[in-house]
Amino acid sequence: xxxxxxxxxxxxxxxxxxxxxxxxxxxxxxxxxxxxxxxxxxxxxxxxxxxxxxxxxxxxxxxxxxxxxxxxxxxxxxxxxxxxxxxxxxxxxxxxxxxxxxxxxxxxxxxxxxxxxxxxxxxxxxxxxxxxxxxxxxxxxxxxxxxxxxxxxxxxxxxxxxxxxxxxxxxxxxxxxxxxxxxxxxxxxxxxxxxxxxxxxxxxxxxxxxxxxxxxxxxxxxxxxxxxxxxxxxxxxxxxxxxxxxxxxxxxxxxxxxxxxxxxxxxxxxxxxxxxxxxxxxxxxxxxxxxxxxxxxxxxxxxxxxxxxxxxxxxxxxxxxxxxxxxxxxxxxxxxxxxxxxxxxxxx
Length: 348
Ligand code: CUA
Fold this sequence. Notes:
This protein is α+β, with helices and mostly antiparallel strands. Helices cover 43% and strands 18% of the residues. Helix 5 crosses helix 10. The radius of gyration is 28 Å and the shape is elongated. Bound molecules: dinuclear copper ion.
């Protein structure tokens, strides 16, 4: 028995370490891109406040119930020669108590939840409105003056930002956890969302409604810029700098037309590239990510994407219907990919 007493605290400690280590590991990583517990906007902070209220009520209930349970198990455990315990049926006072306390807790949770839901629903009149369209599997953003971008959505840091959410095909759901809560995007209806940024930076988002085979690859980045950086980015879409002239860029520019890319993609400054089936590629060379924020935008990843987009984003419309991917006779050669990469990177 003496040995057993020595072992039990150690075993308990071991169990605690096993349980707590992953929790501590999750807490320590402050750069988790999709964290829900590090709000960076007014709306996200209010949602987080609700989360904290519910969390601490849950902690209180857990400790209270488990303490009572342990107390009862130890205090009223069966001992040798115990007879049948006293038989009881019902206890009105206790039943009323354990009905009223949870009801009060639910009311305490419901009130701030309602307040937050109505707040989120009410887009401020002075919000800077951006039209969002979900596509399988990428995001299109149209600004008030008509500029269009895809997947990397810049917003200014100095005012409320509002979104009108629509879909080109099926259900999606728009979510940038550090900036705002999830909002479903439903065919045939326009939902709204808004938030006011608190800091500048890059914030990752993700489609959170299953929308087909590449749902998990339907990501985005929201980039909160200072007002001046935002204004210059936005005007850059209207007046892109002339592409650096190198033979590869010129060849890539021409290939972009001759290979049919222009049928689906728009690039500002080009009269021949006005397609709207695929993502708008204006200022693509400035983007930090590609393939709906699934890969860093660098030469290696862009080459891999142009070589075999199906491998990176299964089921995407380009690899399923663009002739260069469906007709082996038209497939891009490695040399052609090099020039297309040079051209796309020159779009700044
Ligand atoms: Cu779009 Cu999931």
